[in-house]
Design a protein that fits this description.
By secondary structure, this protein is α+β, with helices and mostly antiparallel strands. It has 23 helices and eight strands. The strands form three sheets. Strands 1-2-6-5 form a four-stranded antiparallel beta sheet, with no helix packed on it. It has a two-stranded antiparallel ribbon with strand order 3-4. The protein has a two-stranded antiparallel sheet with strand order 7-8. A hairpin with a 5-residue loop joins strand 7 and strand 8. Helix 11 crosses helix 12, helix 14 crosses helix 15 and helix 15 packs antiparallel against helix 18. The protein is elongated and about 100 Å long.
């Protein structure tokens, strides 16, 4: 938590506390005061003061917030009107916890006597987990001149010098206050190359059922755009296009909360604002399409991750490099990584820009709501989205129309992304064809080929040359018959395939006979050379030969 800048003043009846929290989540703040204790919290700020006098809650307390300055002003009634509070300018003393003002020695000698009742009470006290605080120190102007600018129209600087730890998960760039634009781009490109996963990309490339389903989804602007482009609507003026887009009561409430501002920007900065608007809308269109309009906990992450403007504070010089950057990030970060989604988001953004300011504002209000409901991402509303929501209402419609035409005329190919996508696809297709060919060849080799007629006849001839010693084994036909498969199995060598077995004919010649495919697991020969009541076991005949 951060200790905000604050100032105290007083009159005869009230103590006034002014707290500056320019990047706080003001929709969720808490004020507590009782006696000499005062506490204020508005993430990521926390202020605890130990006052030199007592204050009370009697219904006359007041509070206000100046959105332009990010300033809370709170007036608290004194318990004793007319009392003068000493040391209001002693900030270090006011920040110190109340218990640290006691005069108890830091080291006490413990004797052999029994512990007093006061000592027992001290041992039972709850451990103090209060946050240690330090006075706020203003950054000198000389240091600010060396800092880099970012935010809407590059109007911000020095924000992350104290908030880096709080918002490190929101942006990818480290130390943005001292990282020039050229260095930001180099680091972003390197991070994208590191993050790109060829396996993930190829998986979505070959198994694109989910992607095709997402591409069929029609967001709210699709029907509105179709109405605008209908034959009856072609003759309508630009003012009529705004009537096609309506705002909900919640969106109207959002608009009433914004503070009206005027922005003084030069030509280059003005162009940057329009370019960054394209980048933010591309990320929003992708998120809306893949979630089919149903927001989830990943929506905030998707939008800011796919927009280099939001997560790298990137600046642009033309429309094409915006599309290249967006395409790279779509193929590196989200769940669905398919080039068709990149092209679809480009077409969606073009339609929104052609619909005019109302459609763009509706999208920005949705982004603002998503970030406001995400604990770390709300800082991006302060840096970009809130100003965009105010600025777009005064933007010229002709500028948006020309921007839409510029985006529509730009083409994007896989080769321009610098990720060697076409080479990956060609290599993957070759591997797929080789695997298909190997599978077909293996299947063919396993097909069973029946023996020729002469071989089958030889195998079916009765055995008439078995020695007379086999007559003594007449009592063992059942044993031989039961162990037939085991005998064949024992003669199969380790270098033979599973679909063959060794048999011995009447001449004592060893022959490999194919097994039936359906009975290969039972190791049955294609044609049996043994008949019921046959002579001695095969293993003995092999021994004689």
């Amino acid at each position: 938590m951060l200790t905000p800048a604050f100032d105290l003043s007083q009159d005869a009846a009230f103590l006034t506390i002014a707290i500056r929290v320019p990047h706080a989540r003001v929709s969720e703040f808490d004020v507590y005061f009782q006696g000499a204790d005062f506490r204020f919290s508005a993430r990521p700020y926390f202020l605890r003061l130990t006052l030199p006098g007592r204050i009370i809650e009697n219904g006359s307390e007041q509070g206000s917030y100046d959105a332009d300055k990010g300033l809370f002003t709170i007036q608290l009634p004194k318990e004793t009107p007319g009392q003068h509070f000493e040391g209001l300018n002693m900030l270090t003393a006011l920040l110190a916890p109340r218990k640290s003002r006691t005069a108890k020695p830091l080291v006490e000698e413990i004797g052999t006597s029994s512990v007093s009742e006061e000592g027992e009470e001290d041992d039972d006290e709850e451990f103090d987990w209060e946050i240690e605080q330090f006075p706020y120190e203003e950054v000198p102007e000389s240091a600010l001149k060396l800092q880099c600018h970012y935010g809407f129209g590059d109007l911000r600087s020095g924000v992350f010098q104290r908030l880096q730890d709080e918002f490190s998960d929101v942006i990818d760039i480290k130390d943005p206050d001292f990282t020039p634009a050229a260095e930001r781009r180099q680091k972003r490109l390197a991070a994208e190359l590191t993050k790109f996963d060829p396996d993930h990309y190829l998986a979505d490339f070959f198994e694109d059922e989910a992607v095709e389903q997402v591409l069929k989804y029609n967001p709210w602007w699709t029907d509105t755009y179709s109405k605008m482009m209908a034959p009856l609507g072609k003759s309508q003026e630009q003012e009529d296009h705004a009537a096609l887009v309506s705002f909900s009561e919640e969106e109207k409430f959002q608009l009433r909360k914004f503070v009206n501002k005027s922005y003084l920007m030069d030509r280059r900065t003005h162009r940057q604002v329009y370019y960054s608007l394209i980048d933010i809308l591309l990320a929003y269109c992708y998120e809306t399409r893949v979630t089919e309009g149903e927001r989830n906990v990943e929506s905030s992450w998707n939008i800011r991750k796919l927009s280099p403007t939001l997560c790298w504070f990137e600046t642009w010089t033309n429309v094409h490099e915006i599309l290249v950057s967006f395409g790279r990030r779509v193929l590196c970060y989200p769940l669905y990584r398919h080039f068709k989604l990149v092209l679809k988001a480009c077409r969606d953004t073009t339609e929104i820009l052609q619909l005019g300011k109302s459609a763009v504002l509706k999208c920005l209000l949705d982004v603002h709501k998503i970030f406001q409901e995400s604990d770390p991402a709300y800082i991006l509303n302060d840096l970009y989205i809130s100003d965009y929501c105010v600025w777009i209402q005064k933007a010229k419609s002709k500028k948006l129309a020309t921007l839409a035409e510029a985006l529509k005329e730009v083409s994007l190919t896989k080769a321009q992304l610098g990720l060697e996508l076409e080479e990956l696809e060609v290599a993957a297709l070759l591997v797929q064809e080789e695997e298909t060919a190997l599978t077909a060849a293996h299947s063919t080799s396993r097909q069973q080929t029946p023996p020729s007629g002469s071989e089958a006849g030889a195998l079916e001839e009765p055995d008439s040359t078995i020695p007379s010693e086999t007559e003594d084994s007449g009592s063992e036909p059942e044993e031989l018959n039961g162990s037939k498969s085991k005998t064949v199995s024992s003669l199969r060598g380790p270098f033979l395939e599973e679909s063959s077995a060794l048999l011995v004919n009447s001449d004592g010649v060893c022959r490999e006979v194919a097994l039936l495919g359906s009975d290969a697991s039972q190791e049955k020969p294609l044609v049996s050379t043994w008949t019921p009541g046959g002579s001695r076991p095969l293993i003995e005949e092999l021994g004689e030969h």
